[in-house]
Specification:
Order of helices and strands: HHH
Mean pLDDT: 83
Largest sheet: none
Helix content: 55-70%
Radius of gyration: 14 Å
Structural class: mainly alpha
Number of domains: 1
Number of helices: 3
Low-confidence stretches: none
């Protein structure tokens, strides 16, 4: 289960990083559509969110054990 979580977190973080760098390429690869204008800005905003989600889900030290 830990390996699956690591793979999912790595994919999310990589997608977020790719959205930060070049949103039109990511949208061309994943859903296969062309984007322009406001959709590029939305991709650049969603990129850090996916990157943060991938890093937050990364398996590692159990930091929430004291809660």
């Amino acid at each position: 289960m830990n390996r699956l979580l690591a793979v999912a977190a790595a994919i999310e973080a990589a997608t977020g990083l790719a959205l930060l760098i070049d949103p039109p390429v990511v949208t061309q690869l994943l859903p296969g559509v062309e984007v322009s204008g406001a959709a590029i800005a939305v991709g650049r905003v969603a990129g850090p969110g996916l990157l943060a989600l991938g890093l937050a889900c990364w398996p590692g030290a159990d930091l929430g054990a004291g809660r």
